[in-house]
Design a protein that fits this description.
Layout lengths: L14 H4 L2 H13 L4 E6 L4 E6 L7 E10 L2 E11 L4 H34 L4 H96 L4 H15 L1 H33 L7 E3 L1 H11 L9 E6 L5 E3 L1 H16 L7 E9 L2 E8 L29 H11 L3 E7 L3 E9 L6
Parallel strand pairs: 6-8
Antiparallel strand pairs: 1-2, 1-4, 3-4, 5-7, 8-9, 9-11, 10-11
Helix pairs in contact: 2-3, 3-4, 4-5, 4-6, 6-7, 7-8, 8-9
Length: 430
């Protein structure tokens, strides 16, 4: 006598029976690496199935909980803990992780159900097999639709994260431009100040020269005798200090021309740095890009800063010069801010084995060993609140990697930091 089919899809299935720790652990580990303090998967009794990350200790936390469903019923929970600095991008990451876990649960459940159904239908009659096949087809269709829906959701979340990341990069660029504009304004105001002062002085000189000419014309019109005219004009000349005015005016004009040239150089350096007239890829002299970047950052340099340039001749490198300059800007700004007094900055470059290598080293306060693995994480910063966005090194790495290269940060606390950039020449010839 055949045993009737009594298996009900999704009945009495616990989350621990559907998804393994080995499947959950890599996803939770990747999620924690992106920023959260801790991520855990709990079963329906709130017992942990898998967890990654560190305890929150005394730091205030923000908890996000997302249910994991089995056949529409909650059978577990994804719990993600953030610091109080959590933001929308991290919330989106937690939701994306939940969707990925849900997709694994659904696919595993489908495989389990298919296996169990197959075992049952082997013992059934032909009519029962036909009916089971019909039910399985309907169930498979439902799962295909669910998988397609989940895939669309994952794609949508990924697109949203990409947009958010693009906005963050743009905000970092605007922040850099704001700081640069403030520094350039200071540099321009210095020569502009004495040009304006010279022009005001020159305006007073013109008034005195006009007064001298008017005095002379009146005496001529009054038929003043020559000897008297000469005596009176000499007296008036000394009174108005005409000889000094003529001498000083020449010097004032020379100083003003020099100040104007200085402003033109500053604007020219800024224009060259920004590559405002260039679009897309171009052949760039990376040594020249470093020098230009140093020039536009001169306002961020302390008076006693010592800069050593060990720049060897480099072949031209095909890249987006504006973006490469942005990467150099972020790295050099970090170096210039690494120490308030007694800073020594060393820039070196050379080419070997078809590889361009650039090093930016400082003798600043360095980075603690526990923080070094996190320096490229978005929003991670050891600076005081309001002193940095935590995106400078992230943006620099994205730009260097997009150019086909790599960047490494090495540091010893209280001894300094070195950023090493490597760019294969073949990457610049793409």
């Amino acid at each position: 006598m055949q045993t009737p089919l009594d298996f009900i899809i999704g009945s009495e299935k616990r989350l621990a029976e559907i998804i393994s720790r080995a499947e959950m652990e890599p996803l939770l580990r990747s999620l924690v690496t992106a920023g959260p303090l801790k991520a855990s998967v709990l079963d329906e009794n709130e017992l942990p199935l898998c967890r990654q990350g560190e305890e929150a200790a005394l730091r205030p936390v923000h908890e996000i909980r997302h249910a994991l469903l089995v056949e529409g019923e909650p059978k577990g929970t994804l719990v993600v803990l953030f610091t109080d600095e959590a933001n929308g991008a991290l919330d989106a990451l937690a939701l994306l992780a939940r969707d990925a876990l849900q997709l694994i649960v659904n696919n595993n459940l489908k495989r389990m159900l298919t296996t169990e159904l197959h075992t049952s239908v082997v013992q059934e009659s032909y009519d029962q097999l036909v009916e089971t096949n019909r039910q399985l087809s309907a169930s498979e269709k439902r799962y295909r639709e669910l998988a397609a829906s989940l895939e669309r959701k994952v794609e949508e979340r990924t697109a949203e994260l990409q947009k958010a990341y693009t906005r963050m990069l743009q905000q970092e660029k605007l922040a850099a431009v704001g700081g640069l504009a403030a520094g350039m304004a200071h540099e321009i105001n210095n020569p502009n100040g004495f040009i304006r002062s010279n022009l005001m002085t020159f305006s007073r000189y013109i008034q005195k020269i006009r007064e001298m000419l008017t005095f002379y014309q009146l005496r001529i019109a009054g038929n003043t005798p020559l000897m008297q005219l000469q005596q009176e004009t000499d007296t008036k000349r000394r009174e108005l200090k005409i000889d000094f005015i003529l001498s000083d005016a020449t010097e004032l004009l020379a100083q003003s021309v020099d100040g104007s040239d200085q402003i033109a150089r500053i604007v020219g350096d800024l224009k060259s740095f920004s590559h405002v007239d260039e679009t897309g890829e171009a052949d760039a002299d990376l040594n020249e890009e470093l020098r230009r970047t140093l020039t536009v950052l001169s306002s961020h340099k302390a008076e006693d800063t010592e800069i050593e340039l060990n720049l060897q001749p480099l072949p031209l490198f095909g890249c987006n010069p504006g973006l490469i300059s942005q990467a150099f800007f972020n790295l050099l700004l970090n170096a210039l801010q690494s120490r308030k007094r007694g800073l020594k900055l060393v820039l070196s470059s050379h080419c070997f084995d078809n590889m361009i290598q650039i090093r930016i080293s400082d003798n600043g306060y360095g980075i603690a060993a526990k923080n070094l693995p996190r320096v490229f994480e978005p929003f991670f910063t050891t600076k005081e609140v309001g002193s940095g966005t935590g995106m400078g090194l992230t943006v620099a790495r994205e730009i260097i990697c997009a150019a086909g290269g790599s960047i490494d940060i090495s540091s010893t606390e209280h001894a300094g930091t070195t950023a090493t950039i490597q760019l294969p020449l073949e990457a610049g010839n793409r």
